Amino acid sequence: MAKPQRASFVCQNCGGSTNRWVGKCPACGEWNTLVEETDAGPPPGSGITRTTRGRAVALESLAARGEAPPRIPTGMPELDRVTGGGIVPGSALLIGGEPGIGKSTLLLQLSAAFANAGRRTLYFSGEEATAQVRLRAERLGLSSAPVALASETSLANILATLADGKPPALIVIDSIQTLWTDTLDAAPGTVSQVRAATQTLIRFAKQTGSALLLVGHVTKEGQIAGPKVIEHMVDTVLYFEGDRGHPFRILRSVKNRFGATDEIGVFEMVASGLREVANPSELFLGDRDSKAPGAAVFAGVEGSRPLLVEFQALVAPTSLGTPRRAAVGWDANRLSMLLAVLDARCGVGFGQHDVYLNVAGGLKVTEPAADLAAAAALLSSLSGEVLPADRVFFGEISLSGAVRAAGHMSLRLKEAQKLGFAQAVLPQAGDIDTAGLKLSLQRISHLKELADMAGPCH
Ligand SMILES: Nc1ncnc2c1ncn2[C@@H]1O[C@H](COP(=O)(O)OP(=O)(O)OP(=O)(O)O)[C@@H](O)[C@H]1O
Ligand SMILES: [Mg+2]
Ligand SMILES: [Zn+2]
Fold it and tell me: Which of 326, 368, 388, 450 is buried most, with the most CB atoms less than 10 Å from its CB?
């Protein structure tokens, strides 16, 4: 006799489950995220049944038998950079990103490149009809690429299609949230469905050596399972970010079992699709307004690549009881911390001022070394003194106001020099390779020195 199915309540935010409904998830603390899902056992194709008895498996040694994982170059250097040199056969890659950011565009371009290189490529669109995908391909000028396309959401049908014929080199699923299997009662997009589909597809990829590319939607609400649940199941997680108002898009690797993380790829969204940007600094410094106070250029590093961006601050007397603090492209807590340090260690108070900080171009900066540039922008806006247009800043600021050394100092300086900058304000500590460096360097060990440079302390 078949066992009755177990009902459980699964958190759509973190994937944790409980056996009764509660308002607040005991695992992650989110409210109203539990949804009843019936567990019908392992997903199809996983080879596991309820009655399977264990058997001893063959054990192997650590000593390498093969070489480094072979990689297939994608034909898109920026994508190769982010993935660590190309797509690894048999690996699973998840691309997350907000609606409309360009995930389908990127994957269609990648599919076309694969297919044009003679590799069998299957593109399953669960969100768009084939006609829509074809229209996009036409706009991108990729109609002639031999990509095999289907609009399908049934996991069983997809598996049957995959098993038919030569194993594909690349499988694209757009998106994982749309897939469903009828062995589960839960609705498509719920954690159980997403997890089951991912598990099954990854298994197929590992067995056949096909590379698997999954699109995952990022939502703030718990209704649709975010890719967080499947992040631990896949080999590589990429995030596609960008600002709707700006054409450029950043592809960031947050997890990579086959390469470094924190690498970024920079693209520009144009009518003909995503175009790679080889010199992002030039792009982000494109239309600088260097004659206004409050603008300071940060010499940053993303992954292994230098990236110069402008920090813009606006400091204005407040008309409110509680002054406003807002940051775009930078951590708001970091801004609060910096304002507190300026106040406590340099005597520069912002208590009567609204403070706005913006990273130009829609880039999100997470490097602590940006502190000094942010501070320079804030001080410049407060004093009204324009900073020299040919000066860059970098250095992390500690709570004591000390300026700490940053990584890749020489790399930052070389990039600044290449782009025509003549001066840099940087930490006293840390070694730099001065060979061929013509920048005039101003090395400081405390934030107070920057405050003094920007005008008298208040
Ligand atoms: N004719 C066009 N010219 C320029 N850019 C376009 C054009 N049509 C679409 N785009 C760009 O492509 C974006 C949509 O790209 P795409 O469909 O790949 O995004 P997505 O991340 O897959 O979105 P979704 O989450 O809806 O699936 C639009 O936001 C727009 O920026
Ligand atoms: Mg899409
Ligand atoms: Zn939870």
Answer: 450
